Structure formats: structure tokens, C-alpha cells
Inverse folding.
């Protein structure tokens, strides 16, 4: 994620925010750190995202923008931290175990 002085344009993988995330909820999530600090029109955001689904990508971009804004000033960092935007979502897929069909799904039990 790169923050550049500008008029508030957000570009993801060379595409505009509205084109990349057609759902309004994702766009709101991505813009939330900028709107929290009142700097929505001051920076252009250029980001590259790969992997995961649309919700994960939107949240990852929100986290990246928040981290970039936190480097700007200490007061911005404290505001973003209070809003929970600097916390990484550490959930990951649970591994498949041997003897099981999936991570937790057991093979069908037959009494006889």
C-alpha cells in the first residue's frame, strides 16, 4: 500500500476502487481509516492485493491503509489503534489431520 499526496483516488491492482469492489460494504471498509482521520481527500492510495476472497482482501487493504496512516503521525496511530484498525486478523485455515476427511470431519461411523 502506498499513500501519495492527492485528491482521494484509490487504485487497486491498476483498477479503480468502485470497479475492484462492486459491493458498497467493501468500499466502506476500505475507506474507513481515511474517513476516521478526516483525510479522505488528502491522499491517493495505490495498492496491490493477491490471494484470499473479496472480504479478506478488503479487510487487508483497510489494515494496510491504517498502517500507512499510522506512520504519518503519533496521534493518528492512537486514533486508529482505539478503533481497532491496526490489529491484524490472525485467523488461518486449520490443517487437515490424518485419519480425518477434513480438518475436523470424521469418517462415517458404522455400528455393524
Amino acid at each position: 500500500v502506498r499513500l501519495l499526496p492527492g485528491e482521494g483516488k484509490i487504485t487497486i491492482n491498476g483498477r479503480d476502487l468502485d470497479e475492484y469492489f462492486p459491493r458498497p460494504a467493501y468500499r466502506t471498509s476500505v475507506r474507513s481509516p481515511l474517513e476516521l482521520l478526516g483525510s479522505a481527500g488528502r491522499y491517493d492510495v495505490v495498492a496491490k492485493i493477491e490471494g484470499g476472497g473479496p472480504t479478506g482482501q478488503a479487510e487487508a487493504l483497510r489494515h494496510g491503509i491504517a498502517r500507512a496512516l499510522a506512520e504519518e503521525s503519533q496521534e493518528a496511530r492512537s486514533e486508529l489503534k482505539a478503533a481497532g484498525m491496526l490489529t491484524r486478523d490472525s485467523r488461518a485455515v486449520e490443517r487437515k489431520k490424518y485419519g480425518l476427511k477434513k480438518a475436523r470431519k470424521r469418517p462415517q461411523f458404522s455400528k455393524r
